[in-house]
Amino acid sequence: MSEENKGNNQKTPMRMSLSKKTHSTLTMQSSGGRTKKIQVEVRKRKIVIDPAEIAAKKAREAAEKAKAEEEARLAAQKAAEEARKAAEEKRKAEEARRLEAEKARKAKEEAAKAAKAEKAKAEKKDKQNKQEDIATEELRRKQEAEQQRKNEEEAARLAEETRR
To answer: What are the backbone dihedrals phi and psi of residue 12, each rounded to the nearest 5 degrees, phi first?
Structure first.
């Protein structure tokens, strides 16, 4: 009995083997011209399967097939979800990289702008220092010229006094 049959408490087997024996006699001629009778026994076995077992087997196969299809569908769904998550993570990483590059570019531009402003400030300061140097030089020349004029006047005055 099969395991399915045990749970149903049925006493009929799911498979039955039918054996059939047939006896026949063959007449053959032997070498001396005599006829000889030979008894032949033919055994045939036929297995009969209960239709309920066939239906149960088909039902099990259909259930297994449905289960396999469901597992395949779930696996495909899971793979698609993982692919979607991977694509989302890739997109986020790309966005973060792009934002970081944009930040770096802006920082570089700010640094260049600050350097340019610093350079302009330094140039302005240099120009102002040059102007101050020129003004200081001119003031020094005027003072020297004034000092020389005073010295000449003093020398002229002393010469005038010595002449008198």
So the answer is: -90, 135
CA 72 to chain centre: 23
Token pair belonging to 49: 């399967």
Measured between alpha carbons, how far is residue 123 from residues 8, 16, 135, 150, 163 in Å? Answer: 105, 112, 18, 40, 58
pLDDT digits (tens, 9 = 90+) for 34-53: 888 889 999 999 888 888 88
Please give the C-alpha separations between residue 113 and each of 16, 25, 95, 126, in angstroms, as whole numbers.
Answer: 98, 120, 26, 19
151 vs 143: CA distance, rounded Å: 12
| Owner of token pair 């005038």 | 160
Report the amino acid identity of residue 23: H
To which residue do tokens 């259909």 refer? 62
